[in-house]
Amino acid sequence: MPVINFNYQDLCRLIGEDVPKEILTERIPMLGADMQDTTDGDEMSVEFFPSRPDLFSVEGVARALRAFLGFEKGLKRYDVEESGLTLRVDPSVKSVRPEIAAAVVWDVDIDDAFIRSLMEVQEKLHITIGRKRAKVAIGVHDLDKVKSPFLYAGVDPESHSFIPLGKTEGWNLREILDNHEKGRDYAHLMDGMEVYPLITDADGEVLSFPPIINGTLTTVTDNTRNLLIDMTGTDRKAVDGAMNILVTSLAERGGRIATVRLEGEEVRVTPDLDPVSLTLDIDNCNEFLGTRLTPEDMSDCMARMGYGSKVVGESLALEAPATRLDLLHPVDLMEDVAVAYGYERFGSTPVTVQTYGSEMPFTTTANGIRDIMTGLSYFEVTTLILSNPHDEFTRMGMQEGRVVSVSNPITEDHTCMRAHLIPSMMRVLRRNKHRDLPQRIFEVGDVLKWTKTHRHVAALCVHSKASFTEMKSIAESLLREMSLDYELNASDHPMFIPGRVASISVDGEEIGHFGEMSAAVIGTYEIGYPITALELDLGPKLN
User: Are 372 and 520 contained in the same domain?
Assistant: First the structure.
């Protein structure tokens, strides 16, 4: 979860009240946070739940505390002016990075606290909402150094050059990916793109190469007074939400928010800070929480959570801040009522039934297998249960089988649930091929065979003399220690070398294979040494 670092005195200035540090330490966790270090003078660290990105800055925390502590209850409204600036969105970005929002913040007073907070909120938004810039990337510019109208377009990677932040020489976009530190870090976001996104001004000067790096031309300094902010990404709700969080944070420090007109296939104006209208049924909320709050008391609770709230019949008519991206269901509103009411006031129910906990049998067996494999000098690894059909089947030389697919995958590498453990473990070997040999790894984990979950154990061994005989001894040691009555039979399996593979059967049912992996499979993972492998379905033992 994101940890927010800020100064106690700066927080009090933003709240507008000198709140004792002890009260803050007690009340901030009630908003959904865990206090970290508060012993180093005025420095404070708070770990907030990822569901509340509006609290990922000291300004957001101050805004929430003003309402929560009763200093300024209700919806915080921000004046939004028209900047008169225009940003044209070219259709060429549609297949690259289609969403963009822009805003102006005038009359900022840049000092150490401002810079520290701006860097903090950018970093946290990039990591959380932005998914490490893949979903949302932020650019902050000195507005006075550029001219409107601006252009957001996809360009040939070698057609434009500019000096990126932190450098003194100009590079084209492809060279930035090769040479700049940020370029190398985020070059994967441009994989497969024929054109790269670029933001330029009326004179053709480069503001930003999103989501990689800004240009030095618009570097924010102590003398900057007016900011232009751009947000680009792949999801409009995330882009607009991150923009609302950032500009309202700057407005908390005295900045004046102004809109930018976006012109393209559609015309819209950003940022949009209009509150979201919601309704909360009072009786349902009381029943859900087990409370007996009057409509007025419940309305006051929502006001202390930063909502505009009004009693209308048996419901509350609410205005939710545009920065609250976590409100997906009426339960989220009920949770805010509980937070404002105070979890400490709910009390507790005495335990009336005495129970005893113990490990499930399959957990006991799995832990025993871990001990066995560790005793056989194998290191345990844990890999993702998400995979993709190419790794699961094509690379392993097998015909593609039925898998449980992810309907909205984040990356091409994670489009389905894995059907085997070995492909995931092969990726581990590929990433560690520069390490010393031998490498012996194992995993005990779940796989999905169509819609049923099975627990498997798999082992891989790679070194110059890895052989069938070696893995046979490992398989027999494991089966013997598991007290299984097993049979080994010659077998065929596409991932193994013919004649160097065997199947394992228990009570006449085949539960796995082991053997020497074929050169074709090893080659697809760019590993230059023999590999032996074992994978067993633990179902017969666990059931």
Answer: yes
